[in-house]
Amino acid sequence: MPLVSVLMPAYNHEEYVSSAVESVLGQTHKNLELIVIDDASSDGTWAVLQSFQDHRLRRYRHDRNQGAHATLNEAMALAQGEYIAILDSDDRYDPRRLERLLSEVGRASGNDVFIFSDVDFIGPTGGGIADHPRAQGYKTQRKRWETLSPASWFFASNLAMTTSNFFFSRSLANRVGDFSPLRYTHDWDWALRATLQGTIPLWVREDLLAYRVHGANTLSEGDLWRHIHENSYVQARALLSLGKQLGEGSPEGKAHGEDILLALMGNESLHPISLLCYLVYGLAGTENLCLLDCAGGGSTGWRLQRLAEAVACPPGVFRSMAHLAERERAIVVQAAMLDERWQAMEQMRREIAGQKAMVEDRWATIQQMSGEIASRNQWIDDLSTVVKEKEHCISAQGTMLDERWQAMEQMGKEIAQRDAQLETARAEIQKLNRNLFIRAGRYLRRMLAAL
């Protein structure tokens, strides 16, 4: 008889299922059985499963897809071990996982055991992805969970992250019962129900599970209304059950209630309005099966969506508190930004007003300068007229000077001719003066004059 039964629901994980199976069969703890149920995969998952030859492996196959919760319930009914572990067909165990978790069983109070470990995040190829947003978010949430009491851990979130991280005793499974027909939150619902059975979960602070993040992860689906309904159903069911357990007026109940509130307030999957609706339904006597049917959409669609439409309520109010808080922070940031822009606009308005006055002053100056320029232009026009008149006079005087110059040139020529004639006459006179006869005649005249 195996000590541990490992349950593996498999669906369209041809690429990953071999690694998952090998991580179970390769455990350091050998006394185990691996029950794999192929939930009508359409790829080669079943062929991969058939390739393994190990007597500890039990394989089953569905003719039609029944969903993860139904497949898990079927596998749990087939399990023979005293302890039950689960591994999704795209995740991977650390080789020492079962050995380490079994060593922690002695810390449990009573026969009921529920243990989970820290989680490592891997990508499609199996490499670490510590910087992935989901890994970072898990790390941030984990620090907060460390401050909470174990009884309130699963009110803060699904601390185990996935059914792959579940390790529990057969006795606890018998008390808690089957997984609920929920697509996204059947693991969280089961963990909360186990906690409300009085079982204190044990948290092993070692990365003993590799959670694979890839494009086909169920939680990556964007079915918003289903997320809202399922999250609120799980929380409301737990709170209604808790209310019946705590009774009225006990100091322990009040203290535990305070812890639960602190855990819920930090839960990123807390949808306050939709949770209130489920609580009202529950307090009004609506049976759990009806609430569960509502969480699955029922035959008439999403009830809370219809309620929102009936009262013309924006569907955004049903979003998670984390989303609403983020939107509030965005509004505050935008309001601050708008205020800054308004202040800047006011400053610009004042500057524009000052610039307008300056422009008006400059316009008046320009107008004044335009008048002065017009006066100067007129003065220039008048001056141009005077200049033109003077130019005309100068031109006339130039003509007259030219005429006088030409006359002077003519007179100069005539004077030169006369000078030439005089020079010729002088030469002739000098020539005559040198004539012997003329000189003799002059001498005789002087002599006669002397007598």
UniProtKB/TrEMBL annotation:
InterPro entries, per database record: Glyco_trans_2-like, Glycosyltransf_2, Nucleotide-diphossugar_trans
Superkingdom of origin organism: Bacteria
Coiled-coil annotated spans: 408-435
Keyword Ribosomal protein: no
Sample GO molecular function, one term: transferase activity
Pfam family, one: Glycos_transf_2
Keywords: Coiled coil, Transferase
Record keyword Aminoacyl-tRNA synthetase present: no
Domain Glycosyltransferase 2-like: 5-132
Protein name (Swiss-Prot/TrEMBL): Glycosyl transferase family 2
Protein's organism: Nitrosococcus watsoni (strain C-113)
